Amino acid sequence: MIKSATRYGFLKCGAILGVVLFLSLAGIVTAADCPNRGKLDVRYCDADGDLVADPPADKSQLLDPDTLVFSYTPVEDPSVYENVFEEFMDYLSAKTGKKVKWYGAESYAAQVEAMRSGRLHVAGISTGPTVFGVNLAGYVPIAIMGKEDGTFGYKLQLITHKDSDIKTVQDLKDRNIAHVTPSSNSGNQAPRALFTAQGVEPDKDYKVTYSGKHDNSIMGVANKDYDAAPVASSVLERMVQKGVVDMGDLRVIWESRLFPTTSYGYVNNLDPALAAKVKDAFLTFDWKGTGLDKEFGKQADRFIPITFQEHWADIRTIQEVNGVVYSQEALKGLKVKKKKKKKK
Fold first, then answer.
1. What is d(CA 261, CA 3) in angstroms, rounded to the nearest whole number?
2. DSSP assignment, residue 268?
């Protein structure tokens, strides 16, 4: 805009006023209006210091849509998980008085972009991409799947085929290893930090191939497309339970301590009264006999409250060690095309 103003001979002060007006219309919080932003995108502010975007100060920017759009973290077959979340979406609708529509995201980037653009209101976002959602899309995580005693989480597991001669992390050198996507915690960020600490640096000591999803990495190792892969234990457990993969074909050769699983939350500019109803829906939903119970019941039996500031501390540290930058350019890196399956 400043270049345009110069081109047409406008006064400098007029150009500055034009920029201010543009930013105001775009809903961007200027530095003068925001006492603290942290790593949040320029359009957000964190005045209370809880590391997530505050609701807009301008009430006209609040969202109160007739239909809430809900999305779960990208999986091999999004339509299957639409059925898994069917009862919850009905409950969310009853609690909020809104229609609830499913959005089957094809990638982590697509989820973040949809929320940033205002097309996605409530979501379950995977561990690593949660930080991108918070900083680039105003995502506010409020819940996680867990147990009555408050326990939750999953591990990074390094898997290889049963016939492989890979026994330790050090044996990954000069191999073809599947990582999930650049933003994935257990599928990329954590391995880069933790494997390097053990003397094996991804991209330098072994070839990294991005598979796009944990499911793809697991099936790729089972089919010997990859020599090994770091994956989320929760995804592997579900695939074994459903008979998608035979654990007898795989070996776990290393695993980490527990990480938080997929977070659930809403976009920061939802009307506060509506946001409170969304939060209540998560924390009061009874899983018994539902699709969630059938799909995740062996790992969790309810949604339990969390905060991004506390429960994502280790994930933020891992991403900081890896030099992750939360930008639109970095977001493009979350887009990984699906790999075509090989015919058996």
1. 46
2. T
Question: Cα 160 vs. chain centroid, distance in angstroms?
Answer: 25
Using pLDDT thresholds of 50, 70 and 90, give the confidence band for residue 331: confident
CA dist list (Å): 37 to 50, 142, 177, 314, 318? 10, 20, 37, 20, 21
Q: Are 281 and 95 in contact (CB under 8 A)?
A: yes
CA distance 309 to 16: 36
Contact 227, 164 (CB under 8 A): yes
User: What is the residue type of 317?
Assistant: T
In what helix (H) or strand (E) does residue 91 lie, and over which residues does it extend? helix 86-96
Q: Six-digit token pair at 306?
A: 């969390």
> What are the tens digits of pLDDT across the range 101-133?
999 998 889 999 999 999 999 999 999 999 999
| Contact status, residue 137 vs residue 193, Cβ threshold 8 Å | no
C-alpha of 253 from chain center: 26
Kindly write down the DSSP assignment for every residue of 118-170, as one continuous string: TS--EEEE-HHHHHHHHHHH-EEEEEEEE-TTS---EEEEEEEETT----SGG
Q: Are 194 and 156 a contacting pair, CB within 8 Å?
A: yes
Rounded to a whole number of angstroms, the CA Rg of the chain reads 22
Give the pairing of strands 99-102 and 67-72: parallel
